[in-house]
Amino acid sequence: MRLPFMYDSSMKSITYPLSMPEDLYGEVKRTAEKTGLSMADAIRQSVKLGLPKLEQELSGLKPLSKEECRKAWEVPNAEFDALEHHCASLPEPEPEE
Fold first, then answer.
1. Cα distance between residue 31 and residue 47, in whole Å
2. Helix (H) or strand (E) holding 78
3. Rounded to an integer, what distance in angstroms lies between the CA atom of residue 2 and that of residue 57?
4. Is 53 helix (H, G, I), strand (E, B) or coil?
5. In which element (H, E) is residue 12 found?
6. CA atoms of 22 and 20, how far apart (whole Å)
7. Which residues, 6 or more positions from 43, have their beta carbon under 8 angstroms from its beta carbon?
8. Is the pTM of this model over 0.70?
C-alpha cells in the first residue's frame, strides 16, 4: 500500500492568513496533539489530503439557471431577483497573485 505524499516543511512556501471557526480549530488542535504534528503541519496535511476529495465532490457543479431556480422554488422572488441583478452588475474582483 502506497502512503499519500506528506508535506515537507523544507519546501518553499507562501504565508497565507487563515481564519477558522472555533470548533474546527479545536479539531485541528486535537489532531495535531494526537499525531504529534504542529498546528501548521496538521493544517497543511489536512489540505493536502483533502483537496482531491474536495475537487472530486465539487467539480462539475454549476449554478442553477433562472429557469431552474424558478422551477425549484416555483414562486418568483423579486427580492432575490433584485439581489441577483445587483451582484451581476458588480465588477469582477482582481485575481490574487
1. 13
2. helix 78-89
3. 23
4. helix
5. none
6. 6
7. 18, 28
8. no
Q: Do residues 7 and 41 touch, judged by C-beta distance below 8 A? A: yes
For residue range 6-54, what is the model confidence (pLDDT) as tens digits? 555 566 788 889 999 999 999 999 999 999 999 999 999 999 999 999 8
The tens digit of pLDDT for each residue in 61-96 reads 888 888 888 788 777 788 988 998 999 999 888 888
| Separation of alpha carbons 93 and 11, rounded Å | 30
One-letter amino acid for residue 86 of the chain: H
C-alpha 21/C-alpha 67 separation (Å) is 35
Q: Which residue do the cell numbers 427580492 mark? A: 79
pLDDT at residue number 5? 55
In this structure, which amino acid lies at residue 74?
Answer: E
The cell for 47 is 489540505
Cα(43)–Cα(51) distance, rounded to whole angstroms? Answer: 12
